[in-house]
Amino acid sequence: PQDSEKAKTFVHAFLKRSMPKMKDEAIQDMLTRKAVVLEHYAKKKVKQKRKKTKGFTAKQRRELRLFEIEPEQQRYAIFLPLHELWKQYIRDLCHGLKPDAQPHMIQGKLLKADLHGALVTVTKSKCPSYVGITGIILQEFKHVFKIITKDDKLKVVPKLNNVFSLELDGFISYIYGSKFLLRASERSAKKFKLKGTIDL
């Protein structure tokens, strides 16, 4: 039929135009098999990378003095309400510090608790000048505590080679700083050994 001849002519012309390097014999051979497979390459999808929200670098934080406490705010009396809030937070965390409470259970919770506002004392240290420092913890970093003392002095006390005692409602807990070299946010997921040792 006339339509089939037109179709054959169109296909031949299409193949010749699409594959100019192919010889007429090869095109004719393709047509005799009655099937033409046209290759199609799917475009690869480019994955868009999620943009991470960039925070301040450590250098920028130092330059902006984000974590520095101004001298006029370095007063013990200002942070007494913070200490009262911390005591209530620990009582709620431990379901009330009752006389029959198990010490190891309270100790375990204190090790993972937030210590900002806690009243601590340095009981042992390799450096004698740190022994006896008592105050409220204002800031906790990976390696140091910043403590405000009763005479309105801000002390930076390293955790390494120091033992801190913490007293609340008659319960005394000891923190071995050498085993405590973590940020406050990292401690909640860490398992601690209740018996600590320190080489002093």
TrEMBL record:
One Gene Ontology cellular component: ribonuclease P complex
Classification via SMART domains: POP4 (SM00538)
Tagged with keyword Ligase: no
Main location: nucleus
A GO biological process held by the record: tRNA 5'-leader removal
UniProt KW keywords: Nucleus, Phosphoprotein, tRNA processing
Compartments it resides in: Nucleus, Nucleolus
Alphabetical list of PANTHER family matching this protein: RIBONUCLEASE P PROTEIN SUBUNIT P29 (PTHR13348:SF0), RIBONUCLEASE P SUBUNIT P29 (PTHR13348)
Protein known as: Ribonuclease P protein subunit p29
